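Structure tokens please, single chain.
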Amino acid sequence: MKRILLFITFSILILTCTQIYTMASLFKTEKQKYDVIEHTAAYEIRYYPPALMARVKMNTDNYKELANPGFRKLAGFIFGGNEGGNQIAMTSPVHMDIQKDESVMSFVMPGQFNEGTLPKPVNKDIEILTSDAEYVAALSFGGYANDKKIKIQSEKLGDALSAAGIETKGNYRFLGYNPPFQLFGRKNEIIVRVKWPRPEH
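Here you go.
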């Protein structure tokens, strides 16, 4: 019995240390830059300048089938699967645009790179492009994401924007900020492009 208690205590200690280290590492991770234009209790309006992205398209319409295969392909690229075998730092968040016929996962490239200096991916499924500048509305939620949560939070954001008279453009997208092994303090977001400034009534 004593050995079991010692094992459980040791396991909890290791888990706690791992989670603390993971959360501390996230503070050092480069995050995609944006400006907050408006903040409310229900949503935030942001301006995102153009950003260099690596993306991969998948023939799926759900989070589960996009998350793992998409992440593995893009992680392979930044962890050496490129011309020169260079290590490229991970940034956050990971972008997912989940649609009916085809879905896309994107990694934001570190700010030190541009299209001319970023190593080319070995995997031809990976595209490198610069995103358009855009205004988006964002809603944050915690825990582990899944298709049901993404749908609920997207509808919640849509209802809030509709009530505020803010016009949306395009698909609702998911942003994930944490590695899968982080258990606590998880952050997810739903974003959608909006027409801004809002029309005067």
